[in-house]
Amino acid sequence: MYLKNPSAFRGAVLFSVSICAFVAVPLSAFSHGFAGDRFFPATLTTDDPFAASELSLPTFSGIRQPGQPPVKVFDLSTDISLLVLPRIALTIGDGYSIHKVTNQSAQTGFDNAALNVLYEFFENDKHEAITSLGLTWDIGGSGRKSLGNDSFSTFTPTFYFGKGFGDLPDSLPFLRPFAITGTLGLGIPTSSGNQSDPHPNTLEWGLALEYSLIYLQEHVKDIGLKAPFDHLIPLVEFSMSTPLNRGVNELTTGTVNPGVIWSGQYFQVGIEAMIPVNGHTGHNVGVIAQIHFYLDDLLPKVFSKPLFAR
Per-residue b/e over 264-283, b at no fewer than 16 CB within 10 Å? Predict the structure, then answer.
């Protein structure tokens, strides 16, 4: 059977799965995203290194992109990750975009869908350290081409890491709540393009510098913070892309994203500004916001163990 609108069908399936997870009855647990005493939140624009069952529903972003004329881009997306084997998680994600040019009708449609598999191969609780390897498949042709979605696929093998500074000496107590996570990937398109429209390999890299008031209160010093401030994690994310070959001389593009995450037992809420790093990225500050659910804490009997290793 052939579908008249496969993008809409894909989006409907993903949204339905997300809603089913969202309305599930929560149970008591608190295990998501830890290396020793360190809790690492799910960051908004750079991936965290944990293999876990989790759900982002929704993630909203809005920014004005450069061009002649410039375009206001709004995106509403969701992704769901499932722990399928010990230390291995599979993620599927997609989004719906609205592109608006002044005095013109808005263009709307789905983005290219993406699949990611992540293998968490190292964790050191004493030093609050974790590393993972992953592969992302941006599925070419699965989104609306007129919105700028590529017709070719891109595969991105990626290294992920996280490190908390709770192992610093007691003489530096207020530095111990700091943590850093990051990604380093190589984007490899399945089409090299042509001289007028080259498709270069790209270095996809990102960092997130976090200061956990949760860690400060619980493992350094109780300074008397009350709700909701005792569960805040201020952070700055750096999300960048650098072309590497095929005669592309453009500069690195990306955004610097200062913001804050509030994390509870079953979900977190985050919001960040999106500040372009240069004129190639844009000239206007955008915003990104997200509600993120910890499925392995919401439903530990279902999601705390790998789906295929029961």
Answer: eebbbebebebbbbeeebbe
Lowest mean per-residue pLDDT among 17-21, 65-69, 191-195: 17-21
pLDDT tens track for 107-137: 999 999 999 999 999 999 999 999 999 999 9
Degrees to nearest 5, angle at CA 80 with 78 and 82: 175
- Portion of the chain with pLDDT greater than 90, in percent: 78
What CATH number does the domain containing 135 carry? 2.40.160.40
Residue 310 lies in a domain: no
Token reading at 34: 């830890």
**Residue 307 included in any domain:** no
- Assigned domain for 308 exists: no
For residue 305, CA distances in Å to 31, 38, 150, 309, 310 come to: 12, 21, 36, 7, 7
Number of domains, the chain = 1
**Where would I find the beta strands (DSSP E) of 87-153?**
88-100, 107-110, 114-124, 129-138
The per-residue pLDDT for 15 is: 39
Residue 70 CA to residue 259 CA, distance in Å, equals 25
Token pair of 18, please?
């997300």
- What is the bridge-based pairing of β-strands 54-65 and 38-39? unpaired
Q: Which domain range does residue 282 map to? A: 6-302
Helix, strand and coil in the chain, % to nearest 5: 15, 45, 40
Q: Record the pTM.
A: 0.88
Is 309 part of a structural domain of the chain?
A: no
Q: Which of 305, 309, 310, 307 is nearest to 29 (CA)?
A: 305
